[in-house]
Design goal:
- The structure holds 2 protein chains of 2 kinds.
- Helices cover 9% and strands 46% of the residues of chain A.
- By secondary structure, chain A is mainly beta.
- Chain A is globular and about 45 Å long.
- In chain A, 44% of the residues are buried.
- Chain B has a two-stranded antiparallel ribbon with strand order 1-2.
- Classes of the chains: A mainly beta, B alpha+beta.
């Protein structure tokens, strides 16, 4: 299952900034009480942002919550986390997060 | 805890001083177990919560239960404990269990989630973890989890979250997550690494850039439909 995520960023520096989104990088729903999915990126993305510019990047991700609905243009938020499991295959990912390690 | 310990001590003393004298009222095999249990507890004075709980359990559902309805003689009670003079040994044991439970719950709820110190600047590996949280009466599981993971919302102003993620990941493991609890209950919360989540910080990482202030997050949209615009995965 594929979910597109649009991220709009602004470079506050006076030089080009290289930005890396690691594979499995997690983007959460701003409000999960409405039962909508969080997303883990399907691969690593890297891009450069020119000085003092504002741009958008569209990336793709996997669903993290099997029981939740697909997001449809809902606001999100980046997190400090990435999914570091062995596989970003959708079935493997769901299996891993449904049996948390103790 | 001191009160629970004191009452457990009194229960044990009753069996040592009074119960033993009435052992003939018990079937032989039970009498033997009864004496063995008294000997066991004599060797384990009720100073630890484990022993206190064992004595209470024995009084409620073990071999001490044969004297469930007996009462502590006033001469065993100090002035501050006269209010339980009319309570049965069984009821006193229930009171002990209640105090122990409240003590455990208060210890468990004193925790709040935090990432390892310095995680923003250095490489930190997260380890699987879990904790039992008190779901207070009148609270939903979601509210309990939200309180625990609240510190992850501290970076919300700069566009970095984590609380909603951790609440929803844990919530998905629970039944009746929206149900309001009628009594105090326990909710288990798993930390990020239990879901195979690690930190996404590091050189050139978006999170690190944002936390340093080099990059600002203007907007994040999930379920974005790029088919309506020029198809390009990296529009920058």
């Amino acid at each position: 299952m594929n979910i597109e995520v649009s991220i709009t960023l602004k470079n506050n520096r006076g030089e080009v900034v290289t930005i890396r989104l690691p594979a499995g990088f997690i983007i959460e729903q701003a409000q999960t009480e409405y039962g909508v999915q969080n997303v883990a990126l399907d691969k690593e993305y890297e891009f450069k942002l020119p000085p003092h510019s504002q741009s958008s990047v569209t990336v793709n991700g996997r669903c993290l919550n099997r029981k939740r609905d697909l997001p449809v243009a809902t606001p999100g938020r980046i997190t400090p986390f990435r999914y570091a499991g062995t596989s970003l295959d959708q079935t493997d990912l769901w299996q891993a997060v449904s049996t948390p390690k103790k | 805890m001191q009160q629970a310990q004191y009452l457990a001590h009194l229960i044990l003393r009753w069996h040592q001083e009074f119960g033993k004298k009435r052992i003939h009222q018990l079937p032989p095999d039970i009498a033997q177990r009864y004496l063995a249990k008294i000997t066991y507890f004599q060797a384990h004075q009720p100073s630890a919560s484990k022993t206190i709980r064992e004595i209470a359990d024995e009084q409620i559902k073990g071999v001490f239960e044969h004297f469930y309805n007996e009462k502590l003689p006033s001469l065993l009670l100090d002035q501050s404990s006269q209010n339980i003079a009319n309570e049965s040994l069984g009821n006193i044991a229930h009171l002990i269990r209640q105090w122990l439970r409240e003590e455990e719950l208060s210890q468990k709820t004193s925790h709040i989630f935090s990432l390892p110190k310095g995680w923003q600047e250095r490489i930190v590996w997260l380890y699987p973890s879990s904790i039992n949280l008190l779901q207070k009466q009148g609270e939903t599981k979601r509210q309990t989890l939200s309180t625990y993971f609240a510190p992850l919302a501290d970076m919300k102003d700069v566009g970095v979250g984590g609380k909603e993620l951790m609440v929803s990941m844990n919530e998905d493991l629970l039944d009746g997550r929206d149900n309001v609890s009628n009594e105090d209950a326990i909710v288990t919360a798993y930390g990020p690494a239990s879901f195979d989540f690690q930190l996404a910080t590091g050189e050139d990482s978006l999170v690190t850039h944002v936390l340093r202030g080099d990059i600002s997050i203007i907007q994040v949209i999930l379920g974005y439909d790029s088919s309506n615009i020029e198809s390009y995965k990296q529009e920058v």
